[in-house]
């Protein structure tokens, strides 16, 4: 435990020293919302990954060839794939850093996602090849030459990979980069896989059990699982995955903090790469307010988000009647009815249109995607709920699916 504590503290100290050295060479390094600052951090982390993994690959390959261990050689190739992935990540950061142009008015930020996908596919290919060679070693085992040099190299590899995981995690969280956080997870996984290889070498030496092929296969399977996870992580944002709950909540609370804003709905976030997000939102304001005043407030909201959040926000103005005493009562009733149907259903843009024989209650109702009740049944249940207290009120509901939870 004492040795672990000393090693862990040493890793943290080296990480902090390197991070401070990098920060001194990045102008305005604290402004991580700036695309240039973010890109500089990403490139620096990629260079560190390339150098570290190249050294690990060379050391493990030499030991693996000398000892005849397919598990150590497999782990060395895994480090080579990590070095290659750092090169691709570096290219991704450089290409994503290109400014917007006539053909790509939203910039080139998605190159970072494409580079991540390339890395994931490469890892899958390597994993398949390693699995094949490991299975061959299981059926045709070869004695592994043990040496304490092997143990030392693998132990050093674990320390370096643990350091890399902590380093990439810290920078990834600093600049909000899912790519670097995934790299950190990959390094953490390498700590586990290398630990398995080290255990195989020690077991083989002390007990004579030939587990090298089995351990190599385990490492290969581990690589494949990580590769499939990385493929999913890379494809999701390109397909248009749901924004984080934290971002949605932040935007809503920030917009609602402006005086005159009564409600927020129909928030949509479009991701064109890390740090390059666009959003649109409907904002409810009093219909009695001067339209010029409301428009000025909308301009201020959009400008504030662009300046302080680096978020291109487009605000749609929804005027709502505030002096009809029936509105708050009806809004409360309809909201309670839809909550009983599904807890995540919400109502917005509710208005009352009186007629000679009946009153229309017109509103939009947001329905979660996973809710399978058909729309006719949803409308019927809402109407039945309203009719119990207001027989002459007819509900005119527009149902819309929400991709934000």
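^ structure tokens above, recovered residues below v
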């Amino acid at each position: 435990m004492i040795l672990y504590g000393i090693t862990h503290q040493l890793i943290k100290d080296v990480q902090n020293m390197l991070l401070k050295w990098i920060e001194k060479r990045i102008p305005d390094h604290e402004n991580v919302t700036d695309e240039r600052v973010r890109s500089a951090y990403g490139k620096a982390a990629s260079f560190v990954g390339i150098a570290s993994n190249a050294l690990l690959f060379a050391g493990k390959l030499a030991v693996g060839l000398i000892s005849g261990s397919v598990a150590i050689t497999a782990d060395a190739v895994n480090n080579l794939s990590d070095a290659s992935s750092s090169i691709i990540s570096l290219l991704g950061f450089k290409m994503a850093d290109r400014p917007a142009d006539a053909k790509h008015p939203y910039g080139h930020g998605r190159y970072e996602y494409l580079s991540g996908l390339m890395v994931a596919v490469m890892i899958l290919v390597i994993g398949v090849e390693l699995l094949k060679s490991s299975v061959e070693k299981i059926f045709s085992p070869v004695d592994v030459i043990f040496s304490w040099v092997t143990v030392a190299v693998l132990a050093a590899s674990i320390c370096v990979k643990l350091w890399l995981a902590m380093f990439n995690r810290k920078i990834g969280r600093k600049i909000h980069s899912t790519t670097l956080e995934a790299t950190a997870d990959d390094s953490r996984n390498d700590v586990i896989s290398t630990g398995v290889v080290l255990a195989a070498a020690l077991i083989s030496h002390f007990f004579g059990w030939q587990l090298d092929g089995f351990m190599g296969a385990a490492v290969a399977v581990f690589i494949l699982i990580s590769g499939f996870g990385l493929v999913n992580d890379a494809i999701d944002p390109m397909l248009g995955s749901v924004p984080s709950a934290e971002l949605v909540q932040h935007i809503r609370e920030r917009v609602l903090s402006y005086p005159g804003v009564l409600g927020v709905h129909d928030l949509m976030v479009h991701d064109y790469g890390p740090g390059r997000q666009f959003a649109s939102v409907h904002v409810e304001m009093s219909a009695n307010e001067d339209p010029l005043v409301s428009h000025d407030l909308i301009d201020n909201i959009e400008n504030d988000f662009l300046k302080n959040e680096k978020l291109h926000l487009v605000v749609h103005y929804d005027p709502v009647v505030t002096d009809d005493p029936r509105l708050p009562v009806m809004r409360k009733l309809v909201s309670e009815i839809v909550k009983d149907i599904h807890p995540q259903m919400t109502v917005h843009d509710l208005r009352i249109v009186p007629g000679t024989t009946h009153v229309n209650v017109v509103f939009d109702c947001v329905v979660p995607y996973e809710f399978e009740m058909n729309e006719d049944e949803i409308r019927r249940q809402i109407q039945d709920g309203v009719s119990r207290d207001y027989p002459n009120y007819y509900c005119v509901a527009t149902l819309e699916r929400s991709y934000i939870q």
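DSSP finds eleven helices and six strands in the chain.
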